[in-house]
Amino acid sequence: MSSEKTIPPGPQVHFELRKAGEGRLVLVLSGQLNADSAPRLWQELKQKLAATPATTLEIDAAGLTHCDSAGLALLYFLSTGQMTPNAQVTLSGLKPEFQKELQSFSIKDYQDLQSQQPAKPSVAEETGMAIMGMAGDLKEMAVFIGQVASALVAMPFHPRQVRWSEVLRIFEIAGVNALPIVSLISLLVGLIIAFEAAQPLAQFGAQIYVANLIGLVMVRELGPVMTAILLAGRSGSAFAAELGTMKVNEELNALETMGLDPVRFLVVQRLLASLLLTPLLTIFSMFTGVLGGVIVMLGLDFPMPMILRQLESSVQIRDIAFGTGKGFVFGIIVAGISCLRGMQTKEGPSAVGASTTRSVVSGILLIVVVDALFAALMFTLKK
Amino acid sequence: MSAPPDIIISVHNLTVGYADQVVLQRINFEVRRGEVFAILGTSGSGKSTLLKNLIGLYTPMAGEVLIEGRDIVTAEGDDRLRLLRSFGVLYQSGALFGSMTILENVRLPLDAFTRLPELAKDLVALSKLRLVDLKVSPARLPAELSGGMQKRAALARAIVADPVILFLDEPSAGLDPITSAGLDALFKELSRNSDITLVVVTHELPSIYAIADRVILLDAERKTIVAEGNPYYLRDHATDPLVRHFFRREAI
Lengths: 383, 252
Known about the structure:
By secondary structure, chain A is an alpha/beta fold. Chain A is built from 13 helices and 5 strands.
């Protein structure tokens, strides 16, 4: 009784599996056993051998003209009895050049590997780790705030230590170059809010108050917040990536060993630049936002002097000061947190990406939290 | 056009460079099947640029590179895949993927080129790791390994799909002499035990003398090959002061 199978495409490998007596199987292989022909043969042999119980399996590999690592993997798997757990397996006729490589295979390595898969931590462990991580982060933040504060306090006494050209460069990249996007977004948001507000207010004949609304909203809330969020996404991420790359390239270590404090050398520049540019950008954003509202009002046939009078009556100088003040605080927050995240960058290729993400997320979170604090503060002060 | 059977890589009138800067002009050389061929030169002589042209990462400015008679620039589809499968590259930094374990890294070419069962891929990858003598757990991440161990793992990845040519880009870069000598022994053994062809880019003399059968020496000033042949022969018989200088580390 015998059976034979050729594997298309190409006459690469042939096998013949025949019964040579009670419980005795003979497998004759010939041709080229390589990565292209092995997968098919693997499947077929697995099925055939599972269907034919035997006590001995003799593999005759003398006909194999070529055998690569994949083919040897199959031979090894067969010869160690993995496909025929109840049979004694012998392998004969394999050319000596393949024999040597066959010895580098080891099923024990494979089993070791299976047992080495790291155990998943329990929920309690993960919670603990997360809390430890957060506590560590808070501590690092406190230390960082201290370092930055001391560097900032020291700065007026040693103004020459600040690299003003660097401050200017960052001011340009993060500030001047951000003008188009800040104005576009603010203008559009102003337009949208005015449009949306005009319809319900029209029901009460109160469309003129769109001007009051847009003035207050833009100057006190949206101007500063939108600017800060844009800054966090646009420049905060750049700060974090820049410092993170420097950390990965050991440039931060180089600074330390040259006696230059990275906080003083890198962070102060960015903080100063953003301290200067955020209020300016904020004012710009307030102005273009209000402009958006004015455009809608003009479209609704309100005369310009009337709109201006309305704006004048609702927005006072202290509102503008309040909004700009928020801008200062947001600027410090965005620059500070993104520099901190950059300096916290760990090792590895995905580390810079991770710290960039963290900088934007923490930046936006802090902006919103601090904005809420401002609102609460104003509320209590007014009482 | 087909190359003679014992020539595995042939380079004709190859000009390489970047944008408007020519690094090497109209160079010709051949690599024979089974030999250890070294591309030598000082820093900036265009060794790595040449290598990147050989393996198809850069497109030559002029001329052609034939690997087993096929041009990697024009090869497409299955042809290109077969060509890519025929060689492995050990990059200077190892270029192991940091987010994958060593085993996953080594298995990657098998995932890309073959349809072997998972277990077979693992078995082959583990056998190659044994071959390169990596003594740490393959379940680790690359970042947890020393530079030498990373190189070994990267070498296992380069040879896992049984390439006929292995390109090595500065294999001893950043390694101590003992570790790099260990790697050289590994290359020698690999070359002896199989009919694989090794193309090594290096400037390390001990490496060159230990493993190379034939070398070419590139020069930045002349933008071409200034010497070709057996490294010992060039050391003892070269008359060109530049070549003598390189092989003997003499002042010109």
